[in-house]
Amino acid sequence: xxxxxxxxxxxxLRVEGWRRSADWNRAYMLxxxxxxxxxxxxxxxxxxEFARDAFNIGHVCMAGGLxxxxxxxxxxxxALETDDVSFDWRNGRPALSAWYxxxxxxxxxxxxxxxxxxxx
Length: 120
Fold this sequence. Notes:
The chain is mostly helical. The chain has helices spanning 2-17, 26-52, 57-71, 74-78, 94-103. 61% of the residues lie in helices and 0% in strands.
């Protein structure tokens, strides 16, 4: 559920950010921003538990959400609050950062492109 919430809030913040900044619903964007921060903070609290649990789809979703924040960081991109310009989800979240560092090394989390030769 944390991963779903992180993905949802990140996506909703980005979609609203596609509008002209003069048309942004700032209150809405701040709510989605808060959801992202809250999800990250909860993940930090629970990270030790994640490491003890058998790897599951919830872990995949959380790692995917964190990877998305590495790729597209709407908190930093839209900078709704003063410190957002330098926002990095890892800051202040050492347990979550360590868990993520381990999880993305798993073979099941690696993205590999294979090209097959077409039969003539």
